[in-house]
Amino acid sequence: MKRVILCILTLAPTFGQGICATEELPATPPHDTLSVNMEDVVITATRTPLPLKKTPVITRVITARDLESRGVATIQEALENELAGVEFHQAGYGTSLSFQGLDARYVLFLVNGERMAGETYGNIDYARIPVSNIERIEIVRGASSVLYGSNAMGAVVNIITKMPQKQVEVNASLRYGTPYQDNRSETLGGSNTESDIKTYRNKLDLPNLRGDVSVGFNTGKLQSLTTLSYRTVDAYKLVGTEDEVRHYAAGELKKMGPKMVPVIGPGGNVVGMRPEMDPTTGMPVFEVKSTNLNDTTVIVSPDSRGLSVSGWRDINVGQRFDYTLSKKFRFELSGNYFNKQRYDFNGSILDDNPMSNNSKPWTYETYEGYNIKALMEHSPNENNKVYLSFIRDEYFRNLDSLSGVSTPKQNHVFNTPRLLWTLKAGESHRLTTGLELVNEQLHFDMNPLGYDDLKSMNTGSLYVQDEIRSQKALSFTAGVRADWNNRFGWHVTPKVSVKYSVGKFTIRGNYANGYRNPTLKELFMEFKVPTQGETYIMGNDALKPETNHYLSLAGEFTTQDFNISATLYNSYFRNKIDIRGHMEGLKTLLQYENIRRSQMGGIELIARWRICRGLFLRGNYNYLFQIDDASQESTQYIYPSPHTATLQADYGFSAGNSCYINFNATLRYVGAKTYEDFMPIIDLSGMSSGSMADLKYWTGSYSARQEGYVICDAAINFDFKEMVGISVGVDNIGNYRPKIVNFNSATTPRRNMFIRVSYAFATKK
Fold this sequence. Notes:
Distance between the termini: 18 Å
Helix content: under 10%
CATH class: Mainly Beta
Low-confidence stretches: 1-30, 347-361, 630-634
Oligomer: single chain
Mean pLDDT: 81
Strand content: over 45%
Number of strands: 47
CATH architecture: Beta Barrel
Radius of gyration: 27 Å
Number of domains: 1
Shape: globular
CATH superfamily: TonB-dependent receptor, beta-barrel domain
Number of helices: 6
């Protein structure tokens, strides 16, 4: 589907998209849109419209045209296939992200410039972003807290949505992918009815289906867009085929065993010893027997239960109105509603307790979210713009089981009023000033004590940024932000960027200070992880805010058809928040703690080459190093791979006057990695006697290794008269599956074939 609304350079004058992008921008040709065009206008790096070649930091752009040519179904696929250094893992509870060594807590996701609620395991709910409604994605690496506040320490990903450009526009598409796995043979443990089991199997065996419909109109003064998206995702399991080799360092491993108590005979004498039993659980009470053990290597055999990836069913409805009253006033009102249901397998490889009969009832979860936005834009003259807006984003998480057992709920809210003023002094000078208040609320009943709790946090911010863009070789951007938080007080964040261009060469240097306040979840929530047996995550109200110093130096060479860049980056963290694990009996306790320092950095290489009309190559390589002084008892959501790369080839041509054909192939390489984790080991070697006293429980942190892998995707697209489109493709052509399965496994689905049919209608004016 090649239509004007998919052209990447036509920006709607919306506050959320750059907060002040009102200039009319040029459109690109309908088909030849993958060329190296450094005149593309972006807005995330500075919150003002700026050509790519003039941005103070290298900004990556993924367009609607890119997403369509590759047959992308999710935002995860879009980022993984486009950017090296990005890894997504999916487990029972949802999706986790690693971005150049940092997990999702340090990557701020925006939709039209606004943050989203619903933080779970450090991630937002990526299913809230329907791919069909994306105009483009802008990715800015490095700390951007001056403009965007807390969480923008590692990168900012801004999802910019479509708006109609023609008088009437109608779009519809249906994408069908083959199921990943037949789950009908799966059994359901516990006391469940026949109806429960039938429902369980039916909800896991789902097609990979996505349907999207949008209707828009544009009268000149009034723009409207209504969107509807429906999706189902098949569930599957990953089961390892090779042993995992775990290495425990000396002093890290602890040898535990049942606490023994005397057995008193009839005469009051001690006649023997027996394990002490916990009356609340009926399980033995464990205690540390010895520490400071020698270096130990433990071989862990594959677990037949595997690592489960849930089945999903979700719906997304959106509505947006833009009304231009005059040259001086514009109004925007928009809203979105989202609902999702998750169906999971019973049990998990992370449930390492051998004494569990794995009979807990299986659960399904429901998630809901909505957001509303109201905006007024006032332009007293062509050099002044004032924006006044209010955004509310709310996300609900409800957990219920088919057996009728009520389990935890969570409600996360952002309320954000904002005032923004931009002053343009000629063509080379622009001042941006903002004042905003972020009210965050978290309501949960995940506390082990079983009571509801409501926590809140308020942050007031004032920020100023000055852009000096001379017509000569040198340009300069400086900014500062002052935040006051009712729990953590004041924090000042500076930023300085310098860009120097000579001919086809450009050098960029950046320093930015980033910060992140501990989230309400990290401060207060205490809950049992649903899929991990006796594993609990505990908040810590003594946490301090994280800060980082980000430095980058980039060199870039650009011609009309070729672009290559190299970026060196380094981020030095203070008070980085991590999770440390320890054992209490058979319970694994994970608690958030500050560590003194953490440092990571790397190099990124990007190349884009238009070989000839219609043929394009894109390559991306990222090398990452990490230095961390956290003890080996710390853990991360995902341990990143030091070496990652992507390679894309795209070729398109016209077949007559009515058909355009496009071929796309993508290779994604994720290198081998050594990761650390905290997981108990059960030694059953002494159980032949049948005595519980011979059971040994080994706890500690370990390191292990995952081998590298390559994923290959391919698609072919047919577009007829820019109205009807047909796409056919295969994801994971080689049907790669990880040989060792654990929390750091690559949860790549099995080989999947898909077909997509789309229809687009638009009036000529």
